[in-house]
Specification:
The complex is a heterodimer. By secondary structure, chain A is α/β, with parallel strands linked by helices. Chain A contains 13 helices and 20 strands. Classes of the chains: A alpha/beta, B alpha/beta.
Chain lengths: 432, 215
Amino acid sequence: MSSQFPSISIINGRLVDPANHIDEALDLHIAEGKVLAVGKKPEGFEPEKIIDAKNKIVCPGLVDINVRLREPGLEFKATIESETAAAAKAGITTLVCQPDTNPVIDTAAVVELIRRKAKHSGKARVLTLGAMTQSLAGHEISEMSALKAAGCVAISNAGKPLANTLVERRALEYASTFDINVFVKPEDPHLRNKGCVHEGVVAARLGLPGFAQSAETVAIARDIALAEATNARLHFQTISTARGVQKIQQGLNNGISLSADVAAHQLHLTEQDVDGFDSCCHVDPPLRTLLDRDALRQAVADGTISAICSDHQPHDMDAKLHPFPESEAGISSLETLLGLTLKLVQDKIIDLPTAIARLTIGPAEITDLPFGRLDVGRSADICIFDLESHWILNDEEIISEGHNTPFINWEFSGQVTHTLFEGRLVHERKPR
Amino acid sequence: MFVVRHASSGAAHFIAEHCAEHISVMNAGDGSHSHPTQAMLDMLTIRQHKPDFTPLRVAIVGDILHSRVARSQILALNTLGVSEVRVIAPLTLLPYDARKLGVHVYHDLVEGITDVDVIIMLRLQKERMSGAFLPSEHEYYNLYGLTEEKLKYAKPDAIVMHPGPINRGVEMESSVADGDASVILEQVSNGIAVRMAIMSMCLGSQAENQREAKP
């Protein structure tokens, strides 16, 4: 038993565990893959390994609730093996993946397949969102209850449009019956049309099809109305507009059961970054204006947005080798999730415990998962990073199979030095 | 040399990024983004009639939203320092916040062409009718079609341009297209000269580089 789960003490670190309101110098003791004690070493506990976290932050392993690992079906882009290794390097211990694999996650068998692959990799926990509709086609609702029983943490249509509003209403009603959380990427497909960049000054100048702000806000207003009518629990994924944030705030003020996340890149990039037709900045929803970015940052600070996700979408080389509108959307972003979030601390938008909360307990609460916190008895998923150690993202050091990122040569703080998943060390950065 | 015409905005840019440095890429129109040679031939045509750009008022009429020609013209005219560029169209055919392109926006043709020196009519693609951008050709012509009657509001020596081919009776009356103010055929001739010049300059400098490279 001890060889599979070594006993470990993490000493001299600054423990930041927002769920338990902890931000102080405390040691952490781990046995059998779980947190054994916080603070003083228990009587008679002799750890097999001691990690010295002097001058480092010790926090719960990060929980990323919006990723694509591309397996099964798109293994030429990435695999569960490759992406969980990237997650381990980035301090992420729980990944929740979208159902748009091939085959789609609309049966228990696919959920099981992914679970086995992830278990074999052993570097991170991979959980799934079940398809909201069969084959994600938007017509017939999926076997949500069976998907929940198989382990899906929520249902989602992976950004694919539903045939009509009635299908959405029925899906929400059915999900509500079984207390299943519904994830939506708010988008009206008709208003979006062929839009690939924010409908603003850059789209006007470059002659690129605009993705109107109203394509998001109309969808949010509709979804909130349906959530209110059906009593469903609704989670908005990858909000991109200031007006969208406003609508969610109004919904929350009206006591509707809502939550929201944002992709880390939306907190830093704007439509201006698309200038020059940089296909690495082709994301969906698109990069918006500086005003939107600032409103999103504010919403992260005040908790309207309680989770920051990576919206990880690794691509093969060819996916981006097209004129901008034809290139595939998305950023390979696991490895910049923590770095981009810590930039908000540097920019004094939020303090460190809030930043960590948005990456741990925030997303864990949205998905009702018992992770993202370090009380005694919880799974020892732990991320240790050095806030003072600055690093530059360069292409050679990216572990993910997807190298599609606009953040090459960006400087980040907070290098992850150790990642523990279920009490096992799955990443350790060797000192240079 | 590659001469690139493509339905996607940014296509020529994309090809140029992936070509060796000594290869010239000539953008012959990319999506709704730009059509630089058209704008250059238009500027030459304007210059032949109005040698000084600075006092000019220029109106561009029609489907600005989907027009690569309009985008390149707006850029060229503002670069050459004209006193005013106007665009005239209904909101469905204008980009979001069009003013930021450096133009004054008008929705009424007569108001928009009053006292201008140059009127540029854009070609209207038939598919705009099916995409709910416009109700009908008939209504478009009534509102934005250039007739001899409306042309009187422009300066007496105003010129009328069109990148061709013209939809007669949609964008303008035949008598305007063939009238004294029209310089449309000159645009066609200048198009050949300007494009020859661009190719010659690109290839000429290539030949020069090759000569220099040889000992």
